[in-house]
What does this fold into?
Amino acid sequence: MVEKTIAGKSINVNEEGYLIDPSQWTKEIAIEMAKEEGLELSDKHFEILEYLREKTAAGEALSIRKVGKSGIADIKQLYQLFPGGPLKLSSKYAGISKPTSCV
Amino acid sequence: MSNTEQKPLDKVLIICAKGNLEDVYATLVMANGAVMEGIETKVFFTFFGLEGILKKRMDKLHTATVGNPAMRMPGDLPFPTLLGALPFVETGVSAMMRSEMDKLDMPPPSEFLEMITAGGGEVFACKLAVEMFKLKKEDFSDEVKDIITIGQFYEMAGGQNTQIIFT
It folds into this structure.
């Protein structure tokens, strides 16, 4: 566990940069996290992040297939929004834990 | 001297030569997983593996109920080979396996292929096997990019951190 100051807030992340406590998440943290990795978040990105947070809070397991069927973006668009890690990166910016699904 | 430097994979080439449900799924899960990790991915289907990309049959794949010692019945009982030889048993068992996979959010092969190509993965059919089974490009899923030779497939393997996986 690492303590990190981001967007003026002190947060706890694991060694891969995922938030340990999802309740510490704010929009500003997401923006900063993505910016550090060279990605600018749009409203569309935030729709996905909100969806991921909602589903996780409801205890549902996430898969790229499920997010692709959310009606927000299809799988192709997900890859465009989060290049190189549609589920991994979006989960990270959404402040939830790293996805454990194989699909 | 030990080399402890970890270099992530850049590219994987996956070859599927068998058409059982589990062999095709192993290929699809690995290919999709690689695409999702941002790894450049190419998949080559050959011989009976072509079943996994044939429009007509890809979503109706079977698992072998005869000669499969790992097969179990509900309740963890061993699955008698003679039972597996009865008509429709293989069909029923295979349908059950497909429905169990669907519960885990595993898509049928046709949709799996779409997911792989949506992320930039590429799917190929082996020219030799296509000719042997007298198949045509239009028999295959629209996600199949091309029918190529094994030589053309190896040409795609360039680069420092490439792995070839045979399932």
